[in-house]
Amino acid sequence: MPKNLTTTLLEAVAQPPVALAPEAAPKEIIFLSWADPFHWLRLGWRDLVAHPGTSLFYGLPFWCMALVLHGLFHKEPEYVMTLVSGCLLAGPFVAMGLYDLSRRREQGQATDFMASLTCWKHHLRSLGLLVGVLVVLELMWGRVSLVMLALFFNSGLPTSAGVMEAVVNVGNLDFVAAYIAVSGIFAMLVFTLSAVSIPMVLDRDTDAITAAILSAKVVSLNPGVMLLWGALIVVMIVLSLLLPFALGLAVVGPLLGHASWHAYRGSVRWL
After folding, report:
1. Short-list 90, 120, 89, 105, CA closest to 54
2. pLDDT tens-digit profile of 230-246?
3. Torsion angle of alpha carbons 178, 183, 188, 194, nearest 10°?
4. Are the beta carbons of 244 and 18 closer than 8 angstroms?
5. pTM for this one?
6. Distance, C-alpha 100 to centroid of its chain
């Protein structure tokens, strides 16, 4: 073998292996069972019990969202759906500290409250783009809600009592069905893009587009199970809002945050 070729081969062998970028690392989407969402909730509850003080601290923003929604419904009910969409947008980002707590506990690391508060700062670029996409959806959702209300209440936007009267009025079933359907489409879009994308950015430092696409793939490959997961989230939030002063959301919010981390870990396997 020529000397220069031998030297080239030896130099190539001596080179350190090139690490794959996080988003290029091999991964697979796991096919989920109907029991998985309930398993994620059990794991989330264990995380909450293991870190009750810190978890409940992150529950305060969720409780504040509930109080603001309650106040807005009585003063400006036409903007409630806009704020609801904003809460759906803000919720996963508020829960990033909870994701960090669950990740540390999963890896056997000590809890670091200050680190959980600032876990987002190393992922600003990816999170910023993801926020931008979700904000556009949120603004569209709010605008469509206002247009539908304006078309239906052509004599003026309703009070909170007027909205409730319209909902329970049998003659308005077409409007209620259309409003729920349109809101459901936007809610599903937000859920599809954020189901596992934000925990994934925190865990693997992936770019926003890759994370959102993978989140959409998880939902599309497991539509029934992920629909169940989304329904459980909605039911638990609604039930918590029915408690006095919506205090239940201070516990349900952190529980769902921890469980969402396990939903990501249970639906995506890194090889």
Report:
1. 105
2. 999 989 988 887 888 77
3. 170
4. no
5. 0.76
6. 14
